[in-house]
Amino acid sequence: METGTSKAPPRPLRVALAGVGTVGAGVVRLLDANARLIEARAGRAIRVVAVSARDRDKDRGVDLSPFAWCDDMTAMAARDDVDAVVELVGGADGPALTLARNAIAGGKALVTANKAMIAHHGLALGEAAEAAGVPLKFEAAVAGGIPIIKGLREGAAANAIDRVQGILNGTCNFILSTMEDTGRDFADVLAEAQAKGFAEADPTLDIEGIDAGHKLAILAAIAFGARLDLDHVSCEGIARVRAADIARARDLGFVIRLVGEADVEQSGSGGAARLLQRVRPCLVPRDHPLAHVDGPTNAVVAQGNYSGRLLFQGAGAGDGPTASAVVADLIDIARWAARNGSAGGDAGGETGGAFSIPVGALVAMAPAEPGERRGRTYIRFTVADRPGVLAEITAAMRDAEVSIESLIQQGEPDEAGEVLVAMVTHEGAERCVSEALRLLDGSASLTAAPLVMPILAA
Ligand SMILES: NC(=O)C1=CN([C@@H]2O[C@H](COP(=O)(O)OP(=O)(O)OC[C@H]3O[C@@H](n4cnc5c(N)ncnc54)[C@H](O)[C@@H]3O)[C@@H](O)[C@H]2O)C=CC1
Ligand SMILES: N[C@@H](CC=O)C(=O)O
Ligand code: NA
Q1: Taking the model in full, what pTM does it have?
Q2: CATH homologous superfamily of domain 374-455?
Q3: Which of ligand 2's atoms lies nearest the C-alpha of 113?
Q4: What topology does CATH give the domain 13-144+320-355?
Q5: What is the CA(322)–ligand 1 centre distance, in A?
Q6: Which residues are catalytic?
Q7: CA dist., res. 283 & res. 347, Å (int)
Q8: Residue 338 C-alpha to ligand 3 middle, in angstroms?
């Protein structure tokens, strides 16, 4: 039926994009390629109006000419024709943080993929966003393209969750699974991960487990309603994992994966909740859901008290998947802005703020002590090729009450005259393994610190 009046289309959500590297260029491509479906789903078009990066003339494979170029990204965020700022620069502090603070203070919605910044400053930024009444969103910061933040804060919102476990770094997973499949060298596979855009600008953040630690801390805050506590995330990376460990694990029926685990334990009846957060290379049994996660794929297992076990899996790094998460956040902001009539209003009211609940309601949890936790452990010793070494190791195990399930010595010493000895323990308390290693500390028989990897329960 003709009414004679035609409604003007809603104003587009106008976006300022800071950082046009792997992810930023992916966002430009995705907004262009899927413009029509995004507009239909968001209820309005989403348009980049201004961009900022370090090098204006660099060829990024995307056409930036339709957008205003701004040398100063913080000034860009303050433009009157910008509703939402997307921060894809990276770095916990520096220009990314200055931009984020100023954008929020200036009443702009903020989307970021920057897990380092959120892990370090997420509480302060979340409080600032609540005070300013603007959305702060960071789906891309945890497990790239997997909608894990949405999944936990919306899909699993009715559940108490007391444990999350996952593969949270695409670069490390790519390295470990490629080394396992092809026998290629660590440095060579890392270089490929960098070339594919998976790695951080400083790849030591990936291989030392720090990037996975950032993501785990954010995940724990979302899943458990805990105050972000990066200081108590213990991180161990994959740099010390050798091809020989991968081969030995395979012979024993395991794969090696960098796994982040966080859980909440209640100390006593009605006692305070304690939070354990750690990232470590682990031996994963072949029938565990994380064992078949290969390449830059990430996966998160969350245990809800009504949903049961939830498994989220998908691409954890790379331009397309990460852009998908960034643009999903922008679509949420466009929908929210439509409900609120602008990019202002009660940003947290409907969705619980950046962390599911207001920052002030997050619970400060003391770190849990893992010593009494029980499990099986893989320990790889690098030893001098001389008599008595195995006796010394097994004596330390006996004295620390560690029960040995198997002990495998590599056949021949390597060029450096070193021999690898791989041990698997029976299930026992973690403190016993720590005590055995303390007894061996400084031993002349060991040529390097032992590599300790827990064996995940199936
Ligand atoms: N690459 C990936 O797969 C993923 C990356 N992320 C995060 O997304 C963010 C961006 O990552 P990438 O796109 O991979 O990084 P990138 O290094 O490819 O791009 C960074 C961009 O920021 C610009 N930039 C950096 N420092 C700057 C400065 N001081 N002033 C002005 N511009 C500056 C660079 O010119 C470049 O355009 C980071 O926080 C990263 O941790 C998150 C998930 C996945
Ligand atoms: N460097 C990160 C990128 C995504 O967060 C990774 O490898 O996972
Ligand atoms: Na995600």
Answers
A1: 0.96
A2: ACT domain (3.30.70.260)
A3: 5
A4: Rossmann fold (3.40.50)
A5: 11
A6: 215
A7: 42
A8: 24
